[in-house]
Amino acid sequence: MADYKMLINGELVDAKETFDVVNPATGKTFAKSPHCDASDVDAAVAAAKAAFPAWRDTPIEERRACFMKALGIIAAHKDALGELLCKEQGKPKGGEVPERLLVGASLEMLMTMGLIQKATAIDASPYVHVDMPEAKVEVCRRPLGPVAGIGPWNFPIYCMMQKLAPAVVLGNTFVGKPSPFTPLSILMITTLVKDCFPKGVINMIVSDDSKFRSGAQLTSHPDIRKVSFTGSVPTGQAIMKACSPDSKRVTLEMGGNDAAIVCKDVDVKKAAAGVFGGAFANTGQICVAVKRAYVHSSIYDEFVKELVANAEAAKFGDGLEAETMYGPLNNKMQFDKVSEFVEDARKSGAKIETGGKAMDRDGYFYEPTIISGVKEGVRIVDEEQFGPALPVIAYDDVEDALERTNNTKFGLGGSVWSSDIEAANKLAARVESGTVWVNEHLGDTDSAPFGGFKHRAKAGAPNAPEAPKFPEQQPINTDYKMLINGELVDAKETFDVVNPATGKTFAKSPHC
Measured between alpha carbons, how far is 488 from 157 in angstroms, rounded to an integer? Predict the structure, then answer.
């Protein structure tokens, strides 16, 4: 087995213990990951804190150059990284031919490299907020300090780099913690690029959370200035509590229960293929995937039939197999959850149109499942299944479909499907979700602001437009004067002007 190490203060570090990493396509251990302890967390944060002043003062052009050097190294190793990602996450490896390029690990690597390029192009220059004869206010973007990033297991490379790249480009230092289900590809990247950055700028730790929750110590650490998290709602809520005593800045991207509203005027075959793709991409393990479909009763039976045809044609298998388009669920916990949700729907009287059980093979494979005759009050409609099972719900009135779509604690994404684009856009504007698509689902979210409504999806993920969340904006007020007879006049003396919100001096006034 390969030897994977943590990165702390520019050094590759062995942990005192290791834990097993399982290939979800086989259900068997294929590698060992280091398992950090409390002293490793403290060392990583201390390294980030010590490195911050010099990195903050490094010109942004030099910080960008560090990332471009790292990008070249990642690009040179993208095939090996993709294969490792396939083994630990389960997604298809993809390939270089056009029909395989935008699948699984190939897609994640392309998205990650594109994200790094976008991060290096972030404009962090000051801007003038007020420019008048008597005063000028210039707003500067200042880095916060050590930032913690906690990543998920569904897109482990992309989501970690989504936090790391903009934060570090903008002058922060970084301590990352990947999911214990998928730690290896991130550890491989930090091993590859460690010499591209000064010591302590990037640190990466990992733990088996069943033994030691390093994330809890990291997020509550007094020297961490901001936390960016992608993952489950319960963990995100725990992080908010951990950050509250010292009011850390927090960015949380948590769960979703995205609805697709399918109107009666759609091309059924085309729309069904689009909804299926939006629901089953990455085996349904995407926060903004379609989780429930509301379909007009006049086309309901035909639409369900087309979804079933798509499901039965889908090629599930080991991600290393050439024809695979969909892999297993990532871990047994998620496999058990999807199984429970489908069984709950079955017991409620829903009809399993296709699928509905585990595949007869090793690993965490579950058949692509389409469920009809289901409605609210069943777990697979009310909660997030995060897997390859889609409930399809009939409606007669689009206003009823909209009300049911919005009647949830989730508010991350959604879509509207109709041949009437104007009407679809009006309906989309009333969907209470951070992102809404029309006649597609899972379209480009990388270059657009990405956030959510309601308490199940807080703040936003740090895409390029969201990068200002990593620095602090600092207004600089300049040169106040008196105005006498049309002339700006300096006084012989000045006095302090205090901001009552802080009790501290923030400017000087002329004293006549």
Answer: 56
Tell me the CA distances in angstroms from 297 to 400, 401, 438, 446, one per residue in order. Answer: 12, 11, 20, 34
Question: Residue 253 catalytic?
Answer: yes
**H runs (alpha helix) in 314-440:** 332-347, 379-382, 398-406, 421-428
Is the pLDDT at 472 greater than 80? The verdict is no
- Length reported for the chain: 512
Q: Which residue has the tokens 């490896």?
A: 93
Query: What is the rounded CA–CA span in Å between residue 5 and residue 260?
Result: 43
Tell me the pTM: 0.89
Tokens representing residue 6 in the block = 């943590």
Q: Supply 209's token pair.
A: 């959370």
Query: Residue 475's pLDDT is what?
Result: 39
DSSP bridge partners of 186 = none
**Whole-angstrom distance, CA of residue 327 vs CA of residue 366:** 9
Name the residue among 56, 18, 3 with its Cα closest to residue 200: 56
Give the integer Cα–Cα distance in Å for 319 and 315. Answer: 10
Confidence check: pLDDT of 461 > 60: no
pLDDT over 50 (residue 477): no
The answer, yes or no, to whether residue 230 has pLDDT greater than 80, is: yes
How far is the C-alpha of 359 from the C-alpha of 341, rounded, in Å?
A: 16
CA dist., res. 282 & res. 386, Å (int): 10
Pairing of strands 389-395, 290-296: parallel
Q: Return d(Cα 188, Cα 79) in angstroms, integer.
A: 12
Our answer to whether residue 36 is catalytic in this structure is no
Residues ≥6 apart with Cβ < 8 Å to 187:
4, 5, 6, 7, 33, 34, 178, 204, 206
Nearest CA to 480 among 135, 129, 133?
A: 135
Kindly state the DSSP code that residue 281 receives in the 8-state scheme.
Answer: G
Residue 385 Cα distances to 284, 337, 399, 449, 460, angstroms: 8, 7, 25, 25, 22
pLDDT tens digits for range 256-287: 999 999 999 999 999 999 999 999 999 999 99
- What letter does residue 462 receive in the DSSP assignment? -
Catalytic residue among 88, 287, 353, 383: 287
Of these residues, 88, 108, 253, 306, which one is catalytic? 253
327 and 283 in contact (C-beta within 8 Å)?
Answer: yes
Cα distance between residue 251 and residue 219, in whole Å: 12
Give per-residue pLDDT as tens, 214-227. 999 999 999 999 99
- Vertex 417: Cα angle to 353 and 284 (nearest 5): 50
The closest of 386, 35, 29 to 183, measured between CA atoms, is 35
